[in-house]
Structures are given as C-alpha cells and as structure tokens.
C-alpha cells in the first residue's frame, strides 16, 4: 500500500460505519464531500436529485454527506486504521493454501512472506482481496450471472461544467441500454 485503484464515490450508508471506525475527521480533511446524487433515468429527460442530508435526517442520523475518495489513499487509511486497532497486517505476502476444519469451515491460511512459509488461523477469515476473489477462487468454482457481465470504461478529465449541486455524482441512462456516471 498504497496501490492504484480507480477512485471511489462512497454510498451515503458508509458514513455511520466510517464514524464507528473513527475516520470521519480524516475523511473530511482529505476528501471531497458528496452531498447527493443527480440522476437522469427513465423516460423523463429532466434530472432529479437525492439529497443525502434529507436521507440521513429521515433516519435520525446527523450526517449530511458522503465522500469521493482517492482509492489508494482511502485503502491505506483503512489498512493503517485496522493496524492501529490491533489487526495483524501482513503486506507483500502470498496466500498458498486455505485451511479448513473437519466440517469444511475456513479457519485460516498458509502464506509466504520474505521467503518463509507461515500459518495463520482465526475464528473469522475475511477475504479482502476484492476482485481478486482469493478465497472464492480457491474454494469454489465461480459461476457468473450472465446478464450482469458488464464492461466499464473510465477516464479522467481536467475540467468540467459543474451541475447545480457541484459535488453530486451524476448517473444517467443511455438510450439503447447502459448508463454512465460522472464523479467530480
């Protein structure tokens, strides 16, 4: 860490979790706020908006926004936070085997790091490898839902004309199928 990943526009429901992790002040200081989402969807060509502060207040939450984050920085922030809370973090390690108990429950991994082989066991094993799907690839055969085999193309722009709500994400349906999103 850090490693490059395309940016992330966090959903508003992440704010309470970020508060529980003690990261709100850091997120507010480092990343752009996102106060809502503007959509052009369906047959009505007029855009409509979902305001996060209204959605939050309807649930009794004090939040007014989510964040647009730089993934490499956000991922490193999460990793450092986990480490500070007592998680054992092993970087530059390669999992070579998934350990299971007699019932088939995953109980740990065997990994190599620095040329040495190690064994780690835990009550809970979390696969945080993202699209790498480390445990899924080792434990099951992946089956794809054919109608969700989508393709995404992305790019960065140096300038743009902001929407009425300049920090909103824009999501728009495309005639003939598909959609795009724009994250300021």
Automatic annotation (TrEMBL):
InterPro entries: FAD/NAD-bd_sf (IPR036188), Flavin-dep_Halogenase_NPB (IPR050816), Flavin_halogenase (IPR006905). One of its GO terms (molecular function) is monooxygenase activity. Pfam families: Trp_halogenase. SUPFAM superfamilies: FAD/NAD(P)-binding domain. Signal peptide: none annotated. It comes from the Bacteria. Belongs to the flavin-dependent halogenase family. Bacterial tryptophan halogenase subfamily. This is FADH2-dependent halogenase. The gene is halo.
């Amino acid at each position: 860490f850090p490693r490059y990943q395309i940016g992330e526009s966090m959903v508003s429901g992440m704010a309470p979790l970020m508060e529980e992790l003690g990261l709100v002040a850091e997120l507010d200081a480092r990343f752009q706020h996102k106060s809502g989402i503007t959509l052009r969807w369906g047959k009505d060509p007029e855009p409509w908006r979902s305001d996060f502060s209204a959605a939050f207040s309807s649930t009794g939450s004090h939040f007014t926004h989510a964040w647009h984050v730089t993934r490499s920085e956000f991922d490193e922030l999460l990793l450092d936070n986990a480490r500070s809370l007592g998680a054992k973090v092993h970087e530059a390690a390669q999992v070579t085997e998934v350990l299971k108990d007699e019932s088939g429950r995953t109980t740990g991994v065997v990994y190599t790091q620095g040329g040495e082989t190690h064994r780690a066991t835990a009550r809970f094993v979390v696969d945080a490898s993202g699209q790498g799907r480390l445990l899924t690839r080792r434990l099951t055969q992946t089956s794809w839902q054919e109608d969700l085999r989508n393709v995404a193309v992305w790019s960065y722009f140096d300038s743009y004309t902001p929407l009425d709500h300049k920090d909103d994400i824009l999501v728009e349906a495309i005639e003939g199928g598909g959609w795009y999103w724009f994250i300021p």
